[in-house]
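Re: Re: ligand-bound prediction request (bumping)

Still looking for help on this. To restate: I need the protein modeled with F0G bound, output as structure tokens. Inputs repeated here so nobody has to scroll up.
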Amino acid sequence: MTDTIKHSWAEPYKIKMVEPVFMTTREHREEAIKAAGYNTFLLKSRDVYIDLLTDSGTSAMSDRQWAGLMLGDEAYAGSRNFYNLEETVSKYYGYKHLVPTHQGRGAEHIISQIMIKQGDVVPGNMYFTTTKLHQEMAGGKFIDIIVDAAHDPNSLYAFKGDVDLDKMQQVIDTYGPERIPYVSIATTVNMAGGQPISLGNLKELRALTHKYGIKIIHDMTRVAENAFMIQQKEEGYQHKSVAEITREICDQTDGATMSAKKDAMVNIGGFLAVNDDEIFDEARNMVVIYEGLHTYGGMAGRDMEALAIGIVESVQDDHIKARVGQVHYLGNKLLEFGVPIVKPVGTHGIFLDAREFLPHVPQDKFPAQALAAELYIDSGVRAMERGVVSAGRNKETGEHNYPKLELVRLTIPRRVYTQAHMDVVAESVAAVFTGRDKIKGLKMVYEPKYLRFFQARFEKV
Ligand code: F0G
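Reply:
Sorry for the wait, this slipped through. Here it is.
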């Protein structure tokens, strides 16, 4: 890390091109969110001022990445951009084989279908929506083995992404290692509030699973952010670079799924990477059915080039310090305003604790969904529900899953917004917090079968 700026997270870049956004009135926003069924996913982006729906595919590419687009080799087979990407993945992440996919869930689909059989269980450090669904569709059952602290928004434990090794042992004892195709480990646990796993914990998990011949598949969507938190907070890593720590994390695992739309700052893309030759063989076979030929897997050549460049940029210490620094700037502002958020502040966004924000709205009236709608009405800031709507229904009973965490996620795209934008967001959240008593719950009037949070519709109760 360069030492010239010691006390600031100021950005290591300057702005070369801008994209104007639209300012709207409160009346306009009230109409727009009603028409969208009080679901921020159904708003038109034209009606949004500051878009914190997701950090997925929304980052600003660098001038080098844009230049990379011009080097696209759009051959159907054997594009040179694929080989460049393969080399980059192997150099920075260490995985032996690469299968490109159109985005993260494409890779999740393939690895789940290859490795999971009917009746299997897949332990993991908290679920992610698409990952869990693909595991279930392949016949598996997801079992949460994350530390209890991860479910407590006020716990200050630094590594809330850690696995509870006793819970892991219990799963092994209950089901037997032969029914556990792999452990699903995410770096930067999204649903816990963007919380990191420590390398110490990952190494202990590695030792335990190794004893039983169980593999670890790594959801490496935000691995560089996790590596940065290890550098900042875990004993013994202060003098290692984010790139070195990233590699050390990957080296503890047998394969990975990647949504390159996050850490790697491309607008679309992803991959599956594995060390095992046989799994690779099968994955290469499957990718041609669902994604595209194994040397493009749903991406254009130019996309693979931009991705290879993005991977290199994503692990630069100065970049990641500014990226996480901006998230923490917003988090600290909200803490100063007394707004209840998940603590400690994570790395890809701020998560409002809707239970504490709206204690008068019961969970079956979708408090986080209602809060996200209110925030949009107040200022045109678009956030996302991460609570009971996202958690879906229990596969067996058909009841809502009621997660302990009922959150609204303010996700920060990389290299897109300024400090002034963060101030607007903080002031708007504080204003909504002041008027929180008047906020009412919602009722669901349309519910899709899969991943309902994307398209569900609501009305005010
Ligand atoms: N894993 C994690 C941890 C994710 O956050 C996502 C996507 C995926 C897998 C799936 O990747 O979208 O490329 O298919 N998260 C987005 C989000 C949608 O907003 O958090 P994908």
